[in-house]
Amino acid sequence: MEKHQYLRKPDNCTGPAEWDRLLTVRDLIEFREQLLMDIQQALNGRGVSPEKQWLKAKEIREMLRLSAGKLHYLRAKGLIPFKKLGNITYYDRQKINELMQSGDFRNKFRSV
């Protein structure tokens, strides 16, 4: 039995250059680029949505350009749909967009 069997040259190496080759910075860069592409393809395959369905109050305030008080008022009057989980209030992006497109919300919002 060979003394250092784990140092044996692999069978698929065609020459000494492949066996003795050092890992270079270029090799690491190529590996990184390939790894990032593989990860991105895997994420795209999962159907990851760029837009979140449920938004927090801060995101809704930025989207609708409302103050915290105005958003609370609209929520308390039932003019804007929401779900509460613990102490965090969530808003469904699709429902908010539908509400903004409807004329009913504009009329109700003007009267507030």
UniProtKB/TrEMBL annotation:
Helix-turn-helix domain location: 54-102
InterPro entries, alphabetized: DNA-bd_dom_put_sf, HTH_17
Pfam families per UniProt: HTH_17
Domain of life: Bacteria
Family matches, as PANTHER family: HELIX-TURN-HELIX DOMAIN-CONTAINING PROTEIN (PTHR34585:SF22), PTHR34585
Protein name listed in UniProt: Helix-turn-helix domain-containing protein
Organism: Arcticibacter tournemirensis
